[in-house]
Amino acid sequence: MAWLDVAIEILALLFVLYLYLILPSLRHPDAAALTGKRYAHRGLHDGNHVVHENSLEAFRRAVDAGYGIELDVQLTADRLLVVHHDADTARVCGRSAVIRDTCYAALPTLPDGSPIPTFEDVLNLVAGRIPLIVEIKSYGSPSENAAATQALLANYAGAYCVESFHPAAVRYFRKHAPHTLRGQLAMGGRRNKQEVGLATHCALKYLLVNALGRPHFVAYQSAGDGNLSMWIMKRLYKPLLAAWTLRTQAALDAAEHKGYHLFIFELFRPQ
Fold first, then answer.
1. Three-class SS of residue 136?
2. Cβ–Cβ under 8 Å, residues 202 and 175
3. Cα separation, 149 vs 121, whole angstroms
4. pLDDT digit string (tens) for 111-162?
5. Residue 20 has pLDDT above 90, yes or no
6. How far is CA 5 from the centre of its chain?
7. How many Å separate Cα 32 from the centre of its chain?
8. Under a CB-based contact definition with an 8 Å cutoff, are residues 84 and 54 in contact?
9. Are 218 and 164 a contacting pair, CB within 8 Å?
10. Distance, CA of 251 to CA of 222 (rounded, Å)
């Protein structure tokens, strides 16, 4: 039965490789200033009816309410780091411009007439009063977006962490700013075929990209985390966990019950 021995050895090696791929960082930097907090997703907005997502007003309201903030950063054509979620401004601003191909002065304003904020504007507004989760978008070059983010955060005195769906951005911080708390964004549940390819979805859902960035925390759709990779990682490696995006108090309570540590909410005010 030599073939059986070989098959068992191959399966054992594949399982060891699998454990290596999903391994987060085993170093746990001090995250006391970040954990247990509620983070307003793109600021404390109202679904873009009056107060728009990723606007200075949404961030100001989050600060006044004592919530942390989750926000998105990406570079313009003239290398200015701005806070905006989509690659194109059409959905939020009502006029289309691809941010990475457009200079800052040529970007459309938000519907209330205010400009798309720069990341520096937001840091000056927050001034360390509440913690930040900074999501680095992958539009253009994720590594360049990460480098620009780190350049501004290097002299920022407030509490913050960074995260990205793209492992190259997470890896940038692993190599160039290893003491910055870094997270790998991932998703559970079914794949949205319009947003992500099958290979990318599986690699993120089952945490197979952890080997690249070795994140200190994993940000996951907590309601859809019932898979083997999450089960093993949570019990074997015990990383920090961030839950996104929670839209009811019941969903937040469920994530807290599951042992998540950071809570990203939207369109309601947590208790």
1. strand
2. no
3. 13
4. 999 999 999 999 999 999 999 999 999 999 999 999 999 999 999 999 999 9
5. yes
6. 43
7. 18
8. yes
9. no
10. 8
Pairing of strands 81-83, 68-75: antiparallel
The helix/strand/coil state of 189 is coil
CATH number, span 35-86+117-265: 3.20.20.190
Distance CA 142, CA 73 (A): 10
Of the chain, the end-to-end C-alpha distance in Å amounts to 62
Residue 88 per-residue DSSP state: B
Mean residue pLDDT across the chain = 96
Domain residue ranges in the chain? 35-86+117-265
Decide: 270 and 47 in contact? Cβ < 8 Å: no
Which structure tokens are listed for 264? 């990203």
Q: Any residues with CB less than 8 A from the CB of 170 and at least 6 apart, and which? A: 162, 163, 164, 182, 183, 184, 212, 213, 215
Q: Which residue has the tokens 């983010």?
A: 149
Angle between helices 142-153 and 167-176 (to 10 degrees): 40
- d(Cα 132, Cα 73) in Å, to the nearest integer? 12
Amino acid at 16: V
The H or E element spanning position 65 is helix 56-65
CA 199 to CA 166: how far, in whole Å?
13
Q: How far apart are CA 78 and CA 102, in angstroms?
A: 7
Are the C-beta atoms of residues 200 and 173 closer than 8 Å to each other? no
Helix residue ranges per DSSP H, 66-138 = 90-93, 119-126
Res. 1 pLDDT band, cuts 50 70 90: low
